[in-house]
Each structure stands twice: as structure tokens, then as C-alpha cells.
């Protein structure tokens, strides 16, 4: 008995019938299953038949249903990349390092023949970890600030329920997490400032109590100061408003509480940029009066005035480490947390 042909499906955009593999089969004079095998380039189809099927498909403008094909396969060939952001955040104000990291993850995934599905998520839109269930991706890389507790709680629960997740920026090790070597970066910054003759070195990491990376950078700062016998000066303040504004507020506090300070280690480049502006407005020179070091290594800081000395995170290495960790997770191998090295890039601000 011959297999019945299903009624045509109408494309709502054009009002025309969607070309199916049954149409290609009729045009090529073969069965629908032969069309399927020919388009998958299987050896069971002769070269002459395959050529006839490909010609019929081209003439009809047939496009295979890739989603249906993925459902028949063990893998989607796709990685979901989730960026957890504060609710209502203007995407243009997101730390530029995250965009560097997105590009690095996409590049690392492409080397392995995988695509990226990018998803910005916050409390207002709701958190979504069901990419595997919808057969849209084989697992997730979650990137974001440790301050977004609701988002991290959601993806931690998803991992506990069997979703395949690795993270950058997680506030804990309940998820396999790749991090920068924040403490060592702080050590490099303090040792550099000390070698430049600075003895009153302040730290600005607004909201470090709720920000895991900032907390680690502060710990490294304190340890490095203790190693050379210097006292800490913490002008972090609250995590209110944009990072540049927080940096400016830190300088205002520093001028009020310790005007003899001769250096600032900022927990991020954006905080450092705000500090540079506030120092200039206060009539203080950089690095003459106050030397400044940031952290992240975003592209723009090489062009500010003066160019910013920074502890640069290695985005390409981080992207490769995240993709490798997720692929091991997908393969069922154990995955732990790891660190990516950082390096001090010395410029005019010190």
C-alpha cells in the first residue's frame, strides 16, 4: 500500500503551499524516504538518484526542516549562551568585557562546529533554562554578575535537575564555574603600584560583599598590602548606579577621608574610568598625584586620557575553557571549577 501524501501546509507569510519532501519525491520519481536518505548523503542512494533528488529540490525551492532533523539526531549542534543582566538594564551599559567574552565563546564553539544561541535574561522577562527540553541546544553557558541572586538560583536549580550548565561569574561552586584568577590579578596590581613608590594604595570595589569577583580582588589586595607592610584604604562604598558613577563617588570619599592617598586599585575598568574623571575634575593629576589601576582589560581603556593600566582578563582563554567544560559536561564527564590567568597591562595611568 502506498503512503498517503499529507495535505499541503500553507506559509502564512506568502499564502502559498510550503514545499515538502513529498513534493520533491513526486518530482524526482522516488519515495519520500529516498529523498530523506539522498539529502543526508547516505551511501544507500546511488549517485544518479541523489543527483535527481537534488535537482528536483533546487527547482522546487525545497528547504529541509532543520528542527525536525535535529530531533532525529542525538545533538542539536548548538550551545545556549545566557547572559544574566539586571532588570531594565540598557544593554549598551553592560560591562564591555561580557561582549568580549561572548565573542570568545562563539569563536571557541565555532572551532568545534557548534553554533551559539544567545539569550539575555532578567527578572522581568523571566529566567529560562529549558533549551535542552525544546531541542534548541545541548547545554548552557551562563554568564553574569554574581549580584543577580535570583538568576543564579534559577540556573543552579536547573543544573541540579539534570540540565547541563557551566558558568562564568557564579557566586558559588554549586555550578561548574570558570573564573579569572582575581586574587593574583590584585597581587600584580598592588606590587606594581608599590614598585612605583606608592605607599597609600586605596581599593574601590563597590558592593564587593555581594560580588564574588570583587570580593576575591579585595582579598588579593589586602594580602598583597600585608606582604609589604602597608595599611589598607577601602573606599568601595555602596553598589548604587552605574559603575563609572561608583568610581567617581569612591574618589569623592577618598579625598574626604584620606587626601594623602597616592594610588587607587579599582575592581573594574568602568569603576576606574569614573575615578579618572573625578580626579581630573578635582584638579588632581594621574599618575602624578594618584596612580590608577583597573581590572578587566576592556578595549576602550587604552584610548582614555591617560590610558589606563589594567589587569586584563584573557577572554579567548575563558571562552575556550567554558566551551571545553560544557562539552565535557555534555559527554557525561565530571566537570569542576577552574581559573583563567590574568596579566597586568601597564599604561600611562601609573
Structure write-up:
- By secondary structure, the chain is α/β, with parallel strands linked by helices.
- The chain has 3 domains: 1-64, lambda repressor-like DNA-binding domains (434 Repressor (Amino-terminal Domain), Orthogonal Bundle), CATH 1.10.260; 78-178 and 315-336, Rossmann fold; 182-313, Rossmann fold, CATH 3.40.50.
- The chain has 11 helices and 12 strands.
- The protein has helices at residues 21-28, 32-39, 47-60, 66-72, 96-111, 149-160, 182-195, 212-227, 243-257, 269-281, 315-330; strands at 78-84, 115-121, 140-144, 165-168, 177-180, 201-204, 233-234, 263-266, 291-296, 309-313, 338-340, 342-345.
- It has a 6-stranded parallel beta sheet, with helices on both faces. Strands 7-6-8-9-10-12 form a 6-stranded mixed beta sheet, with helices on both faces.
- Helix 8 (212-227) links the parallel strand 6 (201-204) and strand 7 (233-234).
Number of strands: 12
**Strands in their spatial order, largest beta sheet:** 2-1-3-4-5-11
Based on the coordinates given, report the CATH architecture of the largest domain: 3-Layer(aba) Sandwich
Ranges where pLDDT stays below 50 over 5 or more residues in a row are none
The main sheet comes to: 6 strands, parallel
Structural class: alpha/beta
Q: Quick summary of this structure?
A:
This protein has 350 residues and is of the alpha/beta class. It is 40% helix and 16% strand.
Chart the SSEs and their pairings:
Blueprint (H helix, E strand, L loop, with lengths): L20 H8 L3 H8 L7 H14 L5 H7 L5 E7 L11 H16 L3 E7 L18 E5 L4 H12 L4 E4 L8 E4 L1 H14 L5 E4 L7 H16 L5 E2 L8 H15 L5 E4 L2 H13 L9 E6 L12 E5 L1 H16 L7 E3 L1 E4 L5
Parallel strand pairs: 1-2, 1-3, 3-4, 4-5, 5-11, 6-7, 6-8, 8-9, 9-10
Antiparallel strand pairs: 10-12
